[in-house]
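Two proteins were folded this term; both appear here.
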Amino acid sequence: MVDSANALTATSELRASFACCAQVARQHGRNFYYGMKLMAEPRRSAMYAVYAWMRAADDLADEPGAEAQKQRQLDAFRRQTAAAVDPHGDIAADGPSAHAAMWPAVADTFRRYRIDHACLAAMIQGQLLDQHKTRYASFAELHDYCYKVASTVGLVCLSVWGAADDATARQLAVDRGLALQLTNILRDLVEDARRDRLYLPTDELRQFGIEPEALLAQLREGQAEPAFDDLMAFQIERARAYYTSSAALESHLDASCRPTCWAMMRIYHRLLEKIAAAPRRVLTQRIKLSTMEKLTIGLRAMMRKSKPRMNADERG
């Protein structure tokens, strides 16, 4: 009787944990939530758990406080994550957590889908980078950052989405992550500048005759010099190239997961094209898609569920 009671308690706790993760995704997921909703169970709940874990890492990195304090919090989070991946790990070993409710679902997901701990550790390293690195000298440096905070997300999702563990699928996921993160960077130029962050590579700015500190000052005021237009065109074309190079990603996934992956890509690709249509809009407003636009993308994703990959019209 005791064992049955314990099993019932464990099942109830796990269900409550997955419900908590779903609520986090619903409240904060914005663009990603519309894609995750397209998945069937149990993968949908697994994606909610992955998102809740990523959100917790972001929250720890972004909350007010001294760098040393956040470093300690992220280190503790990293230890909890290692325990969550380990089939024999104790996720409560590090004591109370502000995100305690998510851990049973996170551990169940990480273990069930054999999530690579190296990818999770790299994500946390990306959050740690944001604690002290506010400028990027070259695209090589930016590429490393984007890999840690975005490409690793795609690599984790491959496990949930039933992709074959091969080099081709992994490279496609890496490129897709780069495309999404580069889109984020262009959309959030002003917001980041007001936090004294500039992700555009310094050597590329100077190719266009732009000094980083001058650009930062202008961005904070919602302004930019004429060379900004050519700079944005260059950055937009790079992001487009990564969407193109990752276009075959969906064909490597379980058919039931393709709509989710495609919808997430399509939402961000549309954001990029809105930026491309009027790059200076990022100086005065946050570029976003309407709810109707997102729902339309979701419907299109479901309609093309059986297709193995995008055609040229759907890619743009």
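Next, the second protein.
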Amino acid sequence: SMLLMAGLSVSALWLATPAFAHHPFGGTTPASFMEGILSGLGHPVIGIDHLLFTIATGLLAARVTKGFVIPIAFVLASVLGTGIHLQSWDLPVPEIIVSLSVALFGLLLALRRCPAVPLLAGMAAFAGVFHGYAYGEAIVGAEMSPLVGYLLGFTGIQLAIALGSYTLARQLVAPDAQNSALPQLNLRFSGFAILGAGSAFLSSLLLG
């Protein structure tokens, strides 16, 4: 388990490169239900900032009682964010907010004690709106069928990633064991790595 967490952490830093591919079809709008599903499945995975944030919500959820509401709040809010984009409503500096959210959740994961679950869920939902807004770019102008497929795809893959991370982390630390040293250190180490990756994403946006 320690090795797995270390691998995640090293991967997070290694993937912290200035440019990220965010569109599974190279920017082409999906034209069918199946293309919509595939695009939806791919977007949160090949967008490394989105992937790391989704993982972070699952790892944080494992550290607190009833933490499963954190990734659920994020995923539901991301659907709302996509809807906002499709309505042509503008959100300010979405890429910067997404990068900040990765760094922030890495920091929260690195803390010895986590904030209260309602606060974490609220922050996850706020971030989810901006992540979903970014997802919406790939589906603007699509017909209803690929749009539905896209929403199903990215909702399903995000839930799978977050709940997979949650399940893995639960094997390392009991949700009530706030002071159990070694398991907490494993998750906190991953938090520092995600914080570093988020900081790299942010720097690439601000300095690029």
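DSSP finds eight helices and no strands in the chain. The radius of gyration is 16 Å. These notes refer to the second protein only.
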